[in-house]
Amino acid sequence: MQAHYFIGIAIPEPVARKLAEKRTQWKMRSHKKYTKPEDMHITLLFIGDDPHGEIGDAAKALEEIRHAPFNLTLDGVKTFGNPATPRIVYASVADSRELAELQSDIREKMLQFDMNPDQKRFVPHVTLAGKWAGGDPIDVRMELEPLSFQVTEFSLFRIDPIGERKYIPVSTYQLREG
Predict the structure, then answer these.
(1) CATH number, domain at 82?
(2) CA-CA 20 to 30 A from 32: which of 65, 80, 136, 155?
(3) Residue 54, domain extent
């Protein structure tokens, strides 16, 4: 099986721990998968596999991205799919011009490679639960008080579906004025 990659922002450990604690308080039993705190992230661009061996060059190209650090706020809980039986439950990200610009610059930088990155509309989020397990619809009120943190870096991640940690940073890039 070929390795798959994405570019994302790791959620700082204290914030990820709070998200996991809140999810535990909701007593969710509706999904097959619950994201571990150390794997919580915001995907900026899903790349997928590397059919032409370009991941090293892509990692080097990401060094050219220049953005100042910025703040983000997780501002609620939403779902993908039917709200009563959602495929995904996630922490939503408040609108951020800086995040949108960073994502756009990364997408533009990756267009020079033949890796076929995801072209779907960017919906920044932190997945909390995935893969509906069946059974009764969700009847839990999932609320989240705003959680803010500073984004100082982003990473190129390799996906390890069978590892203890599912998302392994390959390269990490510090945000700085450019």
Answers:
(1) 3.90.1140.10
(2) 155
(3) 4-174
56-76 pLDDT, tens digit per residue, is 999 999 999 999 999 999 999
Determine if the pTM surpasses 0.85. yes
- Which stretches does DSSP call E strand in the chain? 4-10, 31-34, 41-49, 70-80, 88-93, 125-132, 147-151, 153-159, 167-174
- Residue 9 to residue 144: CA distance in whole angstroms: 20
Q: What is the pLDDT of residues 86-113, one digit of tens each?
A: 899 999 999 999 999 999 999 999 999 9
Name the phi and psi angles at 35, rounded to 5.
-65, 130
Backbone dihedral angles phi then psi of residue 71, each to the nearest 5 degrees: -100, 145
Which one-letter amino acid corresponds to residue 152? T
- Measured between alpha carbons, how far is 166 from 169 in angstroms, rounded to an integer? 10
Q: How confident is the model at residue 119 (pLDDT cuts 50, 70, 90)?
A: confident
Taking the CA atoms of 101, 104, 110 and 115 in sequence, report the sign of the dihedral they define: positive
Closest CA to 139 of 12, 18, 22, 30: 30
Q: Is 108 helix (H, G, I), strand (E, B) or coil?
A: helix
| Count of the separate structural domains present in the chain | 1
Catalytically active residues are 41, 125
